[in-house]
């Protein structure tokens, strides 16, 4: 089962290395990792997606909580959270298939952010299933390059994950 963990950390050099090292030493696999500043520049927020049973998840949370520079660790319930991912995808495009690609982009409410004679770059945001579905459909045209952010997540309503 996939789990999402929000980790608030001090915004200092080496913190990401320590967290990645913890996962490596314990043989936990990170499915996705997204890190960025919070509303307070002293802290960063990590959204980590891991796969495993409840016991594995609890062990991950306990180990993370023990690390220096980790302020708070929270498991995010997918029902109580909003999750999004960003992908930019460069697809082979020519006169014959450009309009078909543009229709797909429109159906997925994605954006074309660059056009050249032989390719189109598309930006798509949404849950992982939406991004995966668009990626699958674009493969028939030839994906030249792709970059995905990994999941970012936030609790719905007035609850917050803060330092």
Describe the fold and architecture.
- The protein is of the alpha+beta class and 163 residues long.
- The chain folds into two domains: 2-76, ACT domain (Alpha-Beta Plaits), CATH 3.30.70; 82-152, Alpha-Beta Plaits.
- Helices cover 28% and strands 42% of the residues.
- The chain has helices at residues 15-25, 54-66, 98-107, 128-138; strands spanning 2-10, 30-37, 43-51, 70-76, 81-92, 111-116, 119-126, 143-148, 152-155.
- Strands 5, 6, 7, 8 and 9 form a five-stranded antiparallel β-sheet that branches. It has a four-stranded antiparallel β-sheet with strand order 2-3-1-4, with helices on one face.
- A hairpin with a 2-residue loop joins strand 6 and strand 7.
- It is elongated, with a radius of gyration of 19 Å.
- The mean pLDDT is 93.
């Amino acid at each position: 089962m996939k789990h999402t963990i929000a980790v608030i950390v001090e915004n200092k050099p080496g913190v990401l290395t320590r967290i990645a090292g913890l996962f490596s030493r314990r043989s936990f696999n990170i499915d996705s990792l997204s890190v960025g500043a919070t509303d307070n520049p002293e802290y960063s927020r990590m959204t980590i997606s891991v796969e495993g049973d409840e016991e594995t998840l609890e062990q991950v949370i306990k180990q993370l909580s023990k690390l220096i520079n980790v302020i708070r660790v929270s498991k995010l319930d997918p029902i109580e959270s909003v999750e999004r991912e960003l992908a930019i995808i460069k697809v082979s495009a020519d006169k014959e298939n450009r309009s078909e690609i543009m229709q797909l982009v429109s159906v997925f409410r994605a954006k074309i952010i660059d056009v050249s004679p032989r390719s189109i770059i598309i930006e798509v945001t949404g849950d992982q299933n939406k991004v995966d579905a668009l990626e699958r459909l674009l493969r028939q045209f030839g994906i030249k390059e792709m970059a995905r952010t990994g999941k970012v997540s936030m609790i719905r309503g007035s609850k917050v994950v803060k330092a």
